[in-house]
């Protein structure tokens, strides 16, 4: 997707997330409920117990809010907010107002449906459908966050510029995402794109240049979380997928495309594809070709 092209909708027929009440979330609805992003926290107990993965995803989101130094009453822009899990959590925990942006109508529909069930969020959490490379809902905002979605954005600098323009002077911006290191090559990007659909991964040696070009000064803080992908996540991910999550997914989506062709979804196929995709990232973490980073920048006064 380029900055001038319309958003592409990949979630309209998501019957998998819909099975557990979160259409648009896909298999992630089983893993992290409505939070969607990976639980990149250094918590071996959590990684070793699939029942706690949703808590890890929750803690991940709160860690982003902590680095952003959220203060009650502030207005937060959540870019790529998915089905609204991070927005609702940040509003509840930090007492902030959150405006989420997604380019997925399906995500926005689920976001609104879940939010409207909870009266406490009706005045504090909102969602807009927009392409962050082209426009954002009018601010100004005190804080902007982006969690695990920049790899889906073709023009990082355009998106970061829109964020810069939307922030108040002294506003903070936290970018939290997986990033390629200088050791990665084109073949790594091809392999990732085959699994994750998007090729737009930023690089650890480029993201600060992209932010500087958008108007931000050098980062105030950079946290590297790659050790999680080389440690407890690598140790426990596949075992928990097959021992904890597989029985439920297979019960909901039985069968095999070769034995029962024409069914809407197949649990084993989905699980095998997801495990292969994440195992690729674990291989890249292990070889230091990929890492996971969280950066804080601040718009000048």
From TrEMBL:
InterPro entries, sorted: CFA/CMAS, SAM-dependent_MTases_sf
Residue runs in coiled coils: none
SUPFAM superfamilies referenced in this protein's UniProt entry, alphabetically: S-adenosyl-L-methionine-dependent methyltransferases
Parts of the chain that traverse the membrane: none
A Pfam family annotated for this UniProt entry: CMAS
Annotated keywords: Lipid metabolism, Methyltransferase, S-adenosyl-L-methionine, Transferase
One example of a Gene Ontology biological process annotation: methylation
GO molecular function: methyltransferase activity
Family (UniProt): Belongs to the CFA/CMAS family.
Name of this chain's protein: Mycolic acid cyclopropane synthetase
Organism: Saccharothrix carnea
Taxonomic lineage of the native organism: Bacteria, Bacillati, Actinomycetota, Actinomycetes, Pseudonocardiales
């Amino acid at each position: 997707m380029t900055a001038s092209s319309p958003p592409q909708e990949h979630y309209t027929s998501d019957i998998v997330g819909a099975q557990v009440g979160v259409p648009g979330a896909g298999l992630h609805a089983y893993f992290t409920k409505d939070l969607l992003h990976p639980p990149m926290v250094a918590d071996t107990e959590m990684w070793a117990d699939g029942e706690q993965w949703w808590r890890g995803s929750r803690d991940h989101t709160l860690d982003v809010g902590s680095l952003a130094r959220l203060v009650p009453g502030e207005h937060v822009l959540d870019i790529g907010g998915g089905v609204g899990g991070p927005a609702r959590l940040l509003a509840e925990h930090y007492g902030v107002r959150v405006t989420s942006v997604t380019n997925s109508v399906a995500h926005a529909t689920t976001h609104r449906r879940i939010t409207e069930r909870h009266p406490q969020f009706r005045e504090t959490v909102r969602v807009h459908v927009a392409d962050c490379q082209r426009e954002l809902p009018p601010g100004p905002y005190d804080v902007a966050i982006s969690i695990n979605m920049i790899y889906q954005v073709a023009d990082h600098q355009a998106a970061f510029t829109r964020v810069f323009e939307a922030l108040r002077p002294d506003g903070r911006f936290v970018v939290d995402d997986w990033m390629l290191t200088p050791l990665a090559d084109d073949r790594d990007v091809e392999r990732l794109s085959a699994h994750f659909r998007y090729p737009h991964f930023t690089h650890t040696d480029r993201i600060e240049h992209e932010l500087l070009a958008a108007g931000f000064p050098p980062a105030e803080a950079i946290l590297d979380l790659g050790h999680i992908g080389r440690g407890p996540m690598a140790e426990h991910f596949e075992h928990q997928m097959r021992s904890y999550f597989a029985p439920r997914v297979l019960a909901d989506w039985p069968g095999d495309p070769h034995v029962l062709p024409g069914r809407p979804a197949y649990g084993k196929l989905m699980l095998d594809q997801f495990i292969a995709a994440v195992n690729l990232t674990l291989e890249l973490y292990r070889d230091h070709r990929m890492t996971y980073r969280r950066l804080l920048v601040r718009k000048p006064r």
